[in-house]
């Protein structure tokens, strides 16, 4: 059996199993770029040996099960899990030697040589290569074109940003990247037909271990590639299909030919997202920006821009002479552009039935309806209306359940306007951004009814901006974020419960939040080629400052508790700060590989003051901890604040509302591993807790103390399986408590937890 698992049993007679290769760099002293060179040399070694684990090669065993079979279980297992043996006879040693030598030459080691040695055993063999690079060649001169032509002048002007530096080592990759760099600069200066292949590097390496390079434009480059082009006619077609014949008569708007679809779009809505202008120099940067802006409107499936020589031909221009001399007559080449946009359906309606399981123990069906209008005001404004109806029954509770049945009805609407509605001097169009800025207006209402206990109403209204200046940066500013919560009705039994628990009464009291917030997000996950990716989010939220200033200066009425009111309602005043930092490190250079370490740190604090002094943070704005995206060994709000523990037998509803705080610290570390296609595994460690800023006699041990908070962190660890099919992820994480905030876990806190969730935790 051991022989079968090692795979050696299945090696044909007279053959040897190839077990891999080592590449050794033989240099008299450590090379400056030795690590990078080592990686590059190893990358060309072929073929890759069969995978093994502790000397076992089970894939060879599965492969053998399918040998000679065209169907059946053995064939299926072989196709799914098997791998044919890689034999020594398949290794092209001489070709690999040449590739390693070639890579040395590409890195400036022109005298580099390679030798190979085969180390054979009874049934296995490895091939080891030794690279002897010699001395590296460095640049002694880097010369740019010197002719007095438009194209040479344009190339010469880029020399200050050149990747080629005197004294640095010759590198073929840098030469290739230099051509791409120069081409990118020229494309933004009108040279539409230019290409990197039109540049030629002439290298002279006969001067000892020095080399010179002369950059030239190839004499075979076509004439049209050597002159800048200007845009002439630009056509905008917002309803393009493959069989389009453009029978609609265009209109002239701001110099564009616009094919109107006035039932869906106003011309202004489209031209605001177009950054190519008639009679302007062609710039690839503006073409890419136009594509990005139009796609980010969310109203088009596809956007394509086609260029062609102008139908009207080139135009004559007079170039002013130097020093007052007579100007020269010249020709300005021109391009026409067609911007072709294929629309989504303007309106859509979606309905779905869900089975919801909430962190407070309520489970039941939910029905959601979503309506979307992709151009509600004919300016690519997206109107999204969601309606929800849910019926829930409490299936998990400690002691006697407080709310056994719950009904929830809600509706909310959001209008996304593809521009910043702001004063013109703020330049709200953001002309240097590739991403369409948005103004968001939202409103919502939700009614929650707990049978035999209470009915609660929640109202919300917000207005804000979302914009990006780079692909990694996003900013959201909400100058208006209003929330109002009221206990519309309660039974006598529930009223007695509120009277007995001060903090529970505070959670259900009327809350009027006049907030403003700002969030900045930096996210490198969009840069998929990076092995190390950073995510940072910082947010600040304030509420009640303006209202309190007006109330104090205008002598607004006060409530019985001595707090200012607006329309008879006390308003909250606080400041809240949140930070989140994540780091993703992929073990492989290959972006498609999922093996990586991931870490996250969350820090948040809310500070009530002014009109909320002594009343605490609004309940909606407080922190909870635990659950499938937090400390997974504990249920949501099972722990905290601090070392506080609900009295045994306390109603589940009470403990759920009690276990929140004004401050949160949480950290998570996770290792993710590819297991099989679409299946990934994970090992993780979570730690964190919440605390109160001020003492609460009803929750002893809940106040934060710098000297003791580390000993009050809850810690859990576990393993998980994730079904990842790219467009959605189903996650199963099992976690075990290692430590509770009060010390060794006891009672229900000792039990492990299986977390079922959609998506990754972070």
TrEMBL record:
The answer, when asked if Zinc-finger is one of the entry's keywords, is: no
Principal localisation? membrane
Q: Where does this protein reside within or beyond the cell?
A: Membrane
Q: Which keywords belong to this entry?
A: Cell outer membrane, Membrane, Signal, Transmembrane
Q: Which residues form the Bacterial surface antigen (D15) domain?
A: 564-762
Q: Which residues cross the membrane?
A: none
Know the name of this protein? Answer: BamA/TamA family outer membrane protein
Species source reads: Hymenobacter aranciens
